From TrEMBL:
<dbReference type="GO" id="GO:0008168">
    <property type="term" value="F:methyltransferase activity"/>
</dbReference>
<dbReference type="InterPro" id="IPR026913">
    <property type="entry name" value="METTL24"/>
</dbReference>
<dbReference type="GO" id="GO:0032259">
    <property type="term" value="P:methylation"/>
</dbReference>
<feature type="domain" description="Methyltransferase FkbM">
    <location>
        <begin position="55"/>
        <end position="227"/>
    </location>
</feature>
<keyword id="KW-0489">Methyltransferase</keyword>
<dbReference type="Pfam" id="PF05050">
    <property type="entry name" value="Methyltransf_21"/>
</dbReference>
<keyword id="KW-0808">Transferase</keyword>
<dbReference type="InterPro" id="IPR029063">
    <property type="entry name" value="SAM-dependent_MTases_sf"/>
</dbReference>
<protein>
    <submittedName>
        <fullName>Methyltransferase, FkbM family</fullName>
    </submittedName>
</protein>
<dbReference type="InterPro" id="IPR006342">
    <property type="entry name" value="FkbM_mtfrase"/>
</dbReference>
Amino acid sequence: MLGIHPQSNVQPLNNLTYFGSERHGYLVPDHLLKPESIVYCVGAGEDISFDTELKMKFDSRVYIFDPSPYGINHYNEVKEYVNNRTPLTLDKTIAPYVYHIGPKQFAEIKFIAVGLWDKKDILKFYDPERENYSSHSAYLFTDSKSFIEAPVDRLSNLMKQLGHSHIDLLKIEIEGAEYKVIDTIVEDKLDIKAILVEFDEIYNTNDKGFHFRIKNSCDKLRKAGYILVHSTVALKRLFVKKDIYDQLKKSELNEK
């Protein structure tokens, strides 16, 4: 009734394929991506399995954004292992995942050490207060005494710098900053075909209002013409622009 259940307003697509590790993977619509597709993966942390698998599967133009030491160090670690053709395993005890991407395709992925926000700035990213949590946040953990400072920019500015008039798939896993970024997507009327977002406040919240903050953000996307296609219990969500959704739905019907 309140519209905050994980499955509220979901209009599913049947043809979705999972990419990435068990903890940091996402479902992507079949037939959405091609070699010329532009993919922005924002928030690397210590797992770029989803990003690399999209490159392997579709050979799309993949861009990874993360200004944090965790993200930069992990990207460089994967790069070293890949170039040495040595297997690198994530989550060795819980849900092992091995990177399989080759040196040529990995070299074609562009890493940009900048975070997303609503303007160009140098922002404080606070250290997580939980042990073994590998992400800083500009929105969460603000009671933390320690922080790093890192560059951020508005998504529309980064698209202009990179020469992109549209994005085919945007993944934002950015520890609470997704609210501001979604606002800029709507305000700037950006041409983004599909958006994957993890609402991190469900894991780290200081009050009971987070469900309604998440609902408000999702409602903004829906009013901007996006269809909520998939949602997990943990509120990892897939939104697809209505015209693209209609094409994918038509394709499903034609396959029957």
